Amino acid sequence: MEVKVPSDIEIAQQAKMKPIADLAMEWGIEDEELEMYGKYKAKISLDILNRLKEKEDGKLVLVTAISPTPAGEGKSTTTVGLGQALNKIGKKAVIALREPSLGPVFGVKGGAAGGGYAQVVPMEDINLHFTGDMHAITTANNLLSAAIDNHINHGNQLNIDARQIVWKRVLDMNDRALRDVVVGLGGKANGFVRQDGFMITVASEVMAVLCLSTSLMDMKERFGRMVVAYTYEGKPVTAKDLGVHGAMTMLMKDAIKPNLVQTLENTPALVHGGPFANIAHGCNSILATRLGLKLGEYLITEAGFGADLGAEKFLNIKCRYGGLKPAAVVVVATIRALKMHGGVKKTDLASENLQALDKGFANLAKQVENIRKFGLPVMVAVNKFVSDTEAEIELLIKKCKEYGVDVALNECWGRGGEGGVDMAHTLVNLIEREESSYKPLYDMEASIPEKVNTIVREIYGGNGAVFSPKAQKEIKKLEELGLDKLPICMAKTQYSLSDNPELLGAPSGFDITVKEVRVSAGAGFIVCLTGDIMTMPGLPKVPAANNIDIDENGKITGLF
Amino acid sequence: MEVKVPSDIEIAQQAKMKPIADLAMEWGIEDEELEMYGKYKAKISLDILNRLKEKEDGKLVLVTAISPTPAGEGKSTTTVGLGQALNKIGKKAVIALREPSLGPVFGVKGGAAGGGYAQVVPMEDINLHFTGDMHAITTANNLLSAAIDNHINHGNQLNIDARQIVWKRVLDMNDRALRDVVVGLGGKANGFVRQDGFMITVASEVMAVLCLSTSLMDMKERFGRMVVAYTYEGKPVTAKDLGVHGAMTMLMKDAIKPNLVQTLENTPALVHGGPFANIAHGCNSILATRLGLKLGEYLITEAGFGADLGAEKFLNIKCRYGGLKPAAVVVVATIRALKMHGGVKKTDLASENLQALDKGFANLAKQVENIRKFGLPVMVAVNKFVSDTEAEIELLIKKCKEYGVDVALNECWGRGGEGGVDMAHTLVNLIEREESSYKPLYDMEASIPEKVNTIVREIYGGNGAVFSPKAQKEIKKLEELGLDKLPICMAKTQYSLSDNPELLGAPSGFDITVKEVRVSAGAGFIVCLTGDIMTMPGLPKVPAANNIDIDENGKITGLF
């Protein structure tokens, strides 16, 4: 019964990849729409969206999950596996994933392109420089930073209050020493001294804009609207005021084009854009999703963290801006994680525990219920681990059926697409049986507190939101500036439906405290922070970098 | 007589480029050795050097110049034009250039890929992200920085003295605010507070290593040797001590491969690596040069600044490490610049001034003399400007002939390769007539003061070098560490043969003051600084970025 699966990198290095030009041709991408980056990666020109304008869209399927635990869920593995499985049963499916940041590669070992026999390849390239999107974002972000300090240095005509610069520099690196810095030291020639900080590139609003833009010109408009500072009079200063939104857009002219790679079974994979899932919305780009809908009968995509964060933002932010209408949602669960939601410690996961599984099911039930509030058909995919017992699997399937939700096992990690055939059939049946009546959960025109309260009550299952005095002041300011009629981007712990990471399962009777409110006016959402969000990771005592090597043949070791 | 030439970007945007795969095939590059980056850029696998090991090398020709003035010389334009002209007269010529930094693109308008009808294309791509080499260097450099602070944060087992960290962070951006910074603020979680600074990426030793490496493993060795800090006992701490030289090499696995593009006339152009010409050696990569020698009968390349800096380093550092033997050197001069060397102000250059030209010739004569000290055949290329008068041209040619050096006009800027036919013939004749007896100017085993004095006396025409007390102390330390038996990399003003930028022409009777001595142990040279070298440029009051824009068709305006 137990499957012997080699390590991710061993599997990836043995993959039989198709030349990406061949794959593109098979899926209807024309030669002049393809820009090669080596033999197995390509960017796709946005012109294709115009050419295929009249073609009917495929079915949009979101893969989301229960609240994550240290036991792992396998959302990417499910997304990749489901795409492979759909193709196996004769459906044309494309997948769309977020692209990984380089920083974490050197921190704690672990890739970001699926796992086992459900991976996206060429895995090493995707996890390293890939097609340069991250570097373009870093450069565009930091050009804007340089423009701010340069403007102040040359007379500060815009009257920028250096104490109220909200735009930070970024680097695609885990580097704690850069979290809080002082810049401009060294005398007159180096400008004015001020406090600043670096975030990791994926935390940049430039990344969020990339992912929510619907065209190059839409991107330029969004860059122009980004608020970088406030004047002494409290007026927002934008990238457009500094005159560099055009140059930033030029820097992003290739980054805006979706990247095409493939899964281990040659399913087309669009890997494009990867914003933070707390201070941003945590989904791949709208353009990649739209492209995938034109290329396939099904487009399978995912969103960061559990459904309370990832799916909520996908459905309230991304689908709204992208004019997207999902056909169904897959909620990924693992028996291990549900047992943790039921009170089991990580060290005790190997033993069968039906009681804990029964109790932990509440988290899954709540996430399923939430998806239905958006008017969407939903199914559960159980990502099978070798430690799961027959009795546990049986119980989970029984509970799903009792709850009235379709369920299927996902064995793609160990068996590739073949291990997801049942899951694929379940999904196809669900979509054919149930019509999507998707609608966002709240009206954008509602006040910030109204929108936040809707999310807290409907999605998290809490009593309501409490706003700190600081947050109240910030809300008032956004209302005065007319910047409050935007969707909400909650920055909350991913580990609980509440804002307390210790409250697993499906807690109730809690309040959510919003400590801080910021606007990402270019991306087009209001970030509500319920705690401190780390936007620049550090390296561990022995970083993964110290085990990475490359030999004279270019063979990499120690990476994943 | 006057030629009407459109702007560089207009010419570049109208170029008839060959698909780079076709060009590569014509020049004997095999399909599996080519990695496409779009249709007009490619990287070439280093495997080709092994395949062509037995093939005879082409002739290596260096293009260098008189001491630069604000009037401009046109070294890149001459390099590109000469390559085009050689192909026009039936010789197979390849060119090799440095790749430009992104930072300056947003500062003062001006590209770095030749000009007029002697340009390398696709010019916009080359000046923007190109194939990602700069970004790879930035990342590798900053991984090492993060490793230093991370090591100290986690207990500082190597006993690094935080006051003696010599490794800086980098960004490919003109950003004066980052020259002097304090990092690690914000409390215990963010590490130890210390002073730091950012340089522009091209100033990184990682760039110099890229350009001096002869293989991937040689690069890894060199990264490992780089000195990043000293311990409290004064012992050097290297990248290898920190254990990240393998990961850095992995990050550079694609950057090490030469980039292939083309000129406006489809001459192959290897544009690869671009280190600073003061604190580093200012030449494109050894690997690109070696590759070009295998592909063409002639490989035309250039070095930064005037011959006293660029050619001297090319001949004493790059050729030594690369096992290269140049066949000839072309010294570029313009009548405008020679008149400035003769005392004319920039505003008065439009008027004929034979007396100033006659006087300014001394700088050209000295640079020619210097080349001969290396045992090399040399010719002068006069880069023609529309303002040059017949009498001026006649005088300059007469003076060259009197001096005993071959001379030809370069009219490639206005006429492409056709305008360099005479120059190409002159070069071919020179090489056929005169045998190169190239040898470096000094013995690496000599002491640092001996080596510096040789350069000052033989090349600059000065009395000798004076070492500040600080420099003397540093020399002593390098001698103790056994790091003094390396070539010298002079960091001196490019505007004068002396260390005083005001002394134009061919000054004599001066001393050179070495204020500071540093080792770049990975690159493999000792940097002798004669003044403050700016390693992080700033932006002007109205940066070029503010005029750059891109429209809905992706057409860029305001860039060059």
Automatic annotation (TrEMBL), chains A, B:
Pathway assigned to this chain's UniProt record: One-carbon metabolism; tetrahydrofolate interconversion
Reactions mediated catalytically: (6S)-5,6,7,8-tetrahydrofolate + formate + ATP = (6R)-10-formyltetrahydrofolate + ADP + phosphate
Pfam families: FTHFS (PF01268)
Residues the record lists as binding ATP: 69-76
UniProt-listed Enzyme Commission number(s): 6.3.4.3
Keywords assigned by UniProt, alphabetized: ATP-binding, Ligase, Nucleotide-binding, One-carbon metabolism
GO molecular function term, any single one: formate-tetrahydrofolate ligase activity
Entry's Gene Ontology BP terms: tetrahydrofolate interconversion
Family: Belongs to the formate--tetrahydrofolate ligase family.
Protein name: Formate--tetrahydrofolate ligase
Gene responsible for this protein: fhs
